[in-house]
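ARCHIVE CARD
SHELF: 3
SLOT: left
DATA:
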Amino acid sequence: MSHGQRDSRGALAAGALLFSIGPAALMVMPMIVGVYVDELGFSGRQAGLLASVDATGMFVASLLGMVWVRTLNWRLAAMLGLGGAVAGNLLAAGAHEFTLMLACRALASLGAGTAFAAATASLAEQSKPETAFGIGLAVETLLTMVVMALSAGIIEWQGIAGIFRMLALLAFVVALPVGWLPARSAKTAPVGQPPPSPDPATVAPVAAGLIGTMLFYAGVLGFWVYLERIGQAAGHSNHLIGTILAWSLAAGVLGGIGPAWLHGRGGIARPNLLAILLLMATVLAAVGKVTLPVFALSAIVFGALWVFATAYQAALIATLDRNGRYAVLIPAAQGAGAMIGPAAAALLIQGDEYVAVNLIAAAFLAVSLLLFRVAQRGLGPPGPVALSSNQPME
């Protein structure tokens, strides 16, 4: 596959749109969980299990991506995944029994996760993956805002079935440009030649990057899910907190555009490290009875930096992944961190005091920074190729 094919606008647009399908169901999960109980009569425990199936399906699909990413046509993988997502969501719209709903959500999440893995692999092929992932994250954030804005009205109009139909429609729409995706990695061995054996010198930095990504998301999500409670503990009104969280989400769009604006200036390692340091500062600034301006500034800057850093982390792993084998695991690392962070924070909360949330989030971020420092050593001596592009390395 030529450099131009990998970097075509069509490939970037298809990858960015497809990238948005992965977390779509998880973004509306807080609203869906309540409707599971109120409309379908499921217990709180059953609703929680259904939510965990959506998250687990994404994680498993990313792990399975390692099996097919070097052999299966990515367009075929994406279409099969999206077909599963459409079918699972449409079937869920008519399901009223718990076991059937569980099976439908498993099918939908595995399908969406497979498409998400194909999108991740495609964006990792771009010569400037930090820009590609930034655009993908910006599209994902915009779509999240639209889906969340529409969800309440759709639930009132059609109930939970309307949400699942909306997710099915979304999967259908993002399938339209799948033909523009690259068929497979340009880093893959030519047909007829055996794939190269994993190089320990490559595996170690990639592993450090993936574990760093996991701990980064543990810190970010551990803080994010309790941010509303932190604001309430500081004495701010629900209306103001909701407005600030909306602005924080909107700031993520700017964070995604940031790498495209920088256009390679600063490389792919340094912006990530700087963003993590600033994220630690914003998390620690929101400790205790913070004033409204400090809370608002921390939340909004946090929303932008979270997305900005994620783009560079994915780009770092994509650049280190010289054989196109491991970048597909990025969503699995992010998903594992998203499960670890809130659980770890919950264990440390004392009553209505949320200081421990800030401290554990900052600790996770600090350890992730150290791991990214280890990972960036795999880039080699500083230079235009090592630090800012995804061109094949010798």
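SLOT: right
DATA:
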Amino acid sequence: MRLQAFAGLIALLAAAPVDARAPATAADLKRIETDVPRQDWYPDGYYDVRIAAEAELAEEPAAKEDLAPDWGDGAQYDILGCGGFFIMPEDADDTTQRYGNAALEIARMRRDLRTIGYPAEVYAAPLAAYERHLVEQARRRTPDEILIALGIGSDEIYDALPEAEEETEVGDPPEAALARSIEANRARVARHLPQVVAEGGCGDAPPAPVIVRTEPPGGEVLLISAFAFKVCTRKLTDPWDRFACRWKEIETDKPTEIRGRNAYQVRWPDGDVRRGVREFDLNYNDDTPTTATFRKTGS
């Protein structure tokens, strides 16, 4: 079942069209606060990341039938999901690196549960408890552990790790306890909705090579992941400041590893600038780079 789901994810990503749109504004993000209020236990900086994550997931709608497929034994929703969300390490600030994955995971689960139609009384309390667990787990991590969690730890960091000791699990893992709590509530008040399970995700989609070009040539291309840009929009007066927000300059006409949606700004020598958010067309079938062209006029 998981292999089928993963194949579907890759097919979807491979077919994703190139898309350009205006990024969310500070006012757009502010409106989310009504639906996602600040909690008194949130650590410093986390609320901005949490709001940005909610906006990020709002731009990635999911269909109910894809979230809760029926593999022959009744429809089920896997709370652990099958998608992947990424924080490009070079463009995320320290707080986003620490808490970004937790915020995105909670936003994804919340989006899924609402899309399928579960009432808040089924999931709100268990999800809030799980969010607190993820945030506390992230809060306790050392800087090296954060890099390891993001998959970017250096060889020196991994070599310095103490040899892992065999762990003895006591009780349910937090993810299983979350699914069990939501499922108990579902069975009590919403038995007609799909069962909730925690089987385990099918992994994150990797980056893929993209050759970035400008038309006319000579444009300077800066990219930042759409999620990191939202955090900057929450925190900064000018999120387009290439130094205050960690924009990355992309070398044109050369393959560059890119993941999914990115905010962009392209400046030509005559001073013309194009800005927006773009979903890159990525090739997951082989190692052949796709091409993304930023034009002064048109799409």
